């Protein structure tokens, strides 16, 4: 899909705008920064390998992969995040290729990459099967697909479930993003095109917040999907107050005040047949 099509497609335009809200780069650095290196390590990325990071954001996984000496292409739907990542990489003296691209229509040749990865990125594309098809298509036979995605039962999966009544309706036929955190779902998406699947659920320890209110205020200011939910009910003070309380309660239920605030994710690596 070319840039004109991305701009004209209302679903893509909506997603681009949502992730440009607030400051997701800050979230990726301050809160979930540990996920990128975990993914790069699990993928076994080596110097000289051709690596594609899909829905890369500002480079949570791309930059650590490039620091190892891989030849990295970082792609994302949101130009603002791509530009932020480019600037950060330049300051670090790392050479990456940065591309604005749609995970459902990747502008790369078949069998190009040794490793194709995504760190809590592709899960937010509304239609899962075309994304899975593209991940396989661009990865060479014998290469690896490596993914980190939030689980439905974990904190972020529950966050999206809690925000759903307050958010705009998803496009018809869309699948909830946290399904990418279910091993059986991902296996079905890839089918017999992959083998040797290694998958495990892990916890990301988050120590950025000391109260439910602090978590709520931070995500309401910086995290695009939360900002979008608040904007969707901005004209309804009762619903806004309800969303306020739900986010506080959710964070407290998951241990934000206890020092054991853990966000569950699925780490999955598969070999392309």
From TrEMBL:
Domain Methyltransferase type: 52-146
Keyword Transferase part of the UniProt annotation: yes
UniProt keyword Thylakoid present: no
GO biological process, one term: methylation
GO molecular function, one term: S-adenosylmethionine-dependent methyltransferase activity
Domain of life from the UniProt record: Bacteria
Family annotation (InterPro entries): Methyltransf_11 (IPR013216), SAM-dependent_MTases_sf (IPR029063)
One Pfam family this sequence matches: Methyltransf_11
Name of the molecule in the record: Ubiquinone/menaquinone biosynthesis C-methylase UbiE
Organism: Motilibacter rhizosphaerae
Highest classification ranks of the organism: Bacteria, Bacillati, Actinomycetota, Actinomycetes, Motilibacterales
